[in-house]
Each structure stands twice: as C-alpha cells, then as structure tokens.
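Standup notes
- DV: blocked on the single-chain target, sequence here:
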Amino acid sequence: MNVPGIVQSTLDGEEIAARVSLGGEDELFVTSSRTLLYRSEGLLSDESVDDYPHDADRLTLSEGRRKTKFTLEYPLEDDKQFTVPAKATDDVLHPVIAGVLNGNGITNAGETVVQTYRFSELTLIITSDRLVKHIGGAVWDEDYEEYAFEDVTNLAFEDGSVATQIVLSVDGRPQRIKAPNDEANDLRERLQRALFEYHDVSSLAELNDVVGVEEDDEPEESGSSMDFGDGVDPLDANPPELTDREDGGRAREQVQGQAQAQTQSQPQDQPTADSEAQTPQAGQTTSSDPLAQQDQEAQTKTQAQPQTQSNASSEPASVEEWGQQGQEPATGGGSADSPQSTPSDSDVAADTPEEATREAGIVDTDPIFEEPADSSTTEGDAAPDTDPTSEPAPEVLDRLDALETAVEEQNELIERQRETIEQLITELRQGR
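- DV (later): unblocked, structure below
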C-alpha cells in the first residue's frame, strides 16, 4: 500500500513501525518517536497530517459509542488530542502505547509489545521482556509498575467463578493480578508464551524449575506457627485471686442456694401462712346453701321472661292472621292432602295467545317496508355512454410527459443528496 505524499514528506526518513486504517482513506502511522494521523480530503476537511510525539507523561482514553478520544499530556506543552472510530480503538492503542513506552525509556531497543489488556481501571502490557501494570483512570502515566522477566521466580494461576488470579512471583514476592474469565485464557497464553521464549523453556513446570528460588535463599520462618503478638498475654495455669466484688457476689450466690435448699426440704403437708389466709372462715356462706340456690334460680327466671316475650313479638303472624288477609301461609313443602292454590290474575292472563307468545319471548312485528327509490334516479336517467377507445387530448399527453421528466430529475437530486449524507456520516465516524 502506497504512503500518501504528504505523509512521506512528514516522516523525515523515519521508518513506519505500524499502520492502522481508520476507514476510507484515513490512516494512522506510528514511528519510533511519534504518531502521525493522516486525513484525506473530504467534505469537512482538506488533506492533512498531524503528529503526536511519544514523550508524553500521560495517556488517557475517553470512549464513546461511536468515537474514542486519545489525549496525550506533555510536561511543557499543551495537551494534544485526536479522535478515531470506536471500532478501531484497540488497533490504535496497541502501537501508540508501544511508542509511548519506548519514548519514555521503559522498553529497550528491540523490545516489542506483545499485547495490551484493559480491565476497567487496570491496564496490563505484555512485552517481550517485562509485564507493565497500571491502575487508574489513565491508560498509562508515571505511576506504573513493571515486572522484568529476568526477576520472575514463579508463575501460577488460580481459577475463580468470575475472575482468574495471576500469581507472578518476582524475587520471591508474589504479585496477584485479577483478570475476568472471558479474557483470562488469552492473557494466560500470551504471558506464558512470552516467559517461555525469554527463559527458553516449553512448559510451565519447566519454567518454575528454572526460575524457582533455592531453599537456602528462601526467608527463614519463625518456629512458632501461631503468634498472638505483644497485645495478648499467654494463658496462665494459676489464675489470679478474686477481687472483693467477685467475693461478695460468690457469697450471695451461696446464701441464696442454701435458702432454696431449706425451702425444698420442708414437708408439703404443713400449711403455710399464705394457705391459712386463703382458707374461708366458718361464718361465710357457701354456694351449698339451698335457700341461696332458690333465690338465684328465681332471679334467673325473672330475667329470662322479658327476653322470651321480646322473641315472641318478633315471630311472624299466625295461620289465622294469614287467612284473614286472604293469603296462605308459606310452608316448606306441600303434601298430597293440602288444597291446591288458587291461580293468580297473572297466570290467567298468561293463558291468552298474546300473553303466551309474549311470555315465550316471541315478538310480532310489522314487516319492514323499504322506502321507494329516489324519484330523481330512474332507469331512464342512466349515465351517458362513453367510448373507451377514444384517445386523450394532446394537451393531456404533454402534461404527462412534463410530469415524468420532473419526477426523474427529482429522483436524481435525492440520490445525490443521499450520497452526500452517507459521505458526511462516514467522515464523522472517522473522527473528523
């Protein structure tokens, strides 16, 4: 692929280390010292090239739904920003972060960046010689940590339900890094491969055997497996003497125990003062007196008599009263000997044909007569006959031709407008 002339003149003899397409003819070129952003000629801008040096102190990403903004912060210059399509974020970040690490002297000459991972606010960068870790909102700044492969003494992985822990021991000190399971496998493979190539081994067990710490170099462990610290005294076989408060409490408990034992030892047949107080005296009248029972029964009957009268007044009228009013008393069920009831007026009226029909739900309605047709519309006033084979007038044909021409021109204009709008959308998505 040919390099645009404006980019070739801006390189000044530098070699292109990476090249990323941004859609259309826009491209991003990365060299050892800077990043070049090329914009082709379009509706929104002319052909141009912008450069961004790699000696920045901080690299920050601001991701949106369609675009991602890269911000490079410099110690003595103003911040510089450029925008790329959101789908090209990872493709652009990888070479740019490699250039920033090289520009700040973190990576050596010939050292390559293998892969870059971003897990929320954790950024991991695997190179051919080291692992770089950064925690924070920025992708990279001066608060980074690095673990050189030459100092690694062990590598292990702890699988979890949500995340996988990478235990990388450096100089005998374990460093734990959490990675989500959906990307942990790729991170594991690339990290192992980089370590295997650096130490010239072919398996994880062989790597740990080669880089493992010798037993003499391990830190000595204390003889005691459990240490309570200075703040806790060891248990003493001779407990301290009780204080006066504890002696008094112990004496009260003993006195209460003796009193309870004496109370339980007394025979239950002996009456106590409380039982004597509860015994009724001889002069009191009990419920066994017959005269008292007769008075109580008389009072009960007197109270029940008004209630019986009130219940009787609420009962319905007797059979004779119903007979005087000309109505039969309601009974729960009739018998064969009982006289038949006299039919009512409504039953008699229902025997007539009209009433029977009405009771049956049949309604006799008059036939519906249609209104006579409008006198203004008669068979003789039919529409005049027209000849379908007659040709339209020349004026009508001319008007139809003019309309067809106008419609074709309108369609062509709409098509050009659609192409222009699509081009604008494409340029906007490219970050212009």
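- Follow-up: DSSP finds eleven helices and 14 strands in the chain.
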